[in-house]
Specification:
This protein has about 170 residues and is of the alpha/beta class. The protein is about 40% helix and about 20% strand. The chain is built from 5 helices and 6 strands, in the order E-H-E-E-H-H-E-H-E-E-H. Strand 2 and strand 3 form a beta hairpin. Helix 1 packs parallel to helix 5. The chain starts with a strand and ends in a 12-residue tail after the last helix.
């Protein structure tokens, strides 16, 4: 895994953070994702499993589905996925099937990260596709958003929609 903080990566990660804040405003875990192809957003999403009643509606999955529909192809070659939290195994698996070329993520996921922290699915020699992985882009800001969301949730478990994170 590469560590990176190029200006371009930071730009797209800030856009993903905006989407993560949208998730927080509706009580979803604040994760946002943007899929970029040739400097153009082709798909975006934020966590929606609660509102969509769909356990697969992670930010990455929503962005991948939107991009595939827009492009008319389930193969998303040469694309880069920007996500505020390291993907889980489900999302990493979807990225492999879609042939996403590069993943850029913010905060690591010490419990289920599948881009090198717990698992390394995206660079496994056992699979037929590998993605370039760059982690830690705006990691502090991405992590702070998550920590604050869960801090507020612990304080007011019945009222997460009124979180102060929505600014």
């Amino acid at each position: 895994m590469e560590q990176g903080n190029s200006a371009n990566d930071q730009y797209w990660m800030r856009r993903a953070l905006e989407l993560a804040r949208c998730a927080a405003t509706v009580g979803e875990v604040p994760v946002g994702a943007i899929l970029v192809l040739r400097d153009e957003v082709v798909g975006e999403g934020w966590n929606r499993p609660i509102g969509a009643h769909d356990p697969t509606a992670h930010a990455e999955m929503v962005a991948l589905r939107a991009a595939a529909a827009r492009l008319g192809n389930y193969r998303l070659v040469e694309s880069t996925l920007y996500v505020t939290l390291e993907p889980c195994p489900m999302c990493a698996g979807a990225m492999i099937h879609a042939r996403v070329a590069r993943l850029v993520f913010g905060a690591v996921d010490p419990r289920a990260g599948a881009a090198g922290t717990v698992f390394n699915l995206l660079q496994s020699e056992h699979l037929n596709h590998r993605a370039i992985v760059t982690g830690g882009v705006l990691a502090e800001e991405c992590g702070l958003l998550l920590r604050e969301f869960f801090r507020v949730r612990r304080l007011k478990p019945a009222d997460v929609e009124t979180s102060v994170i929505a600014d």
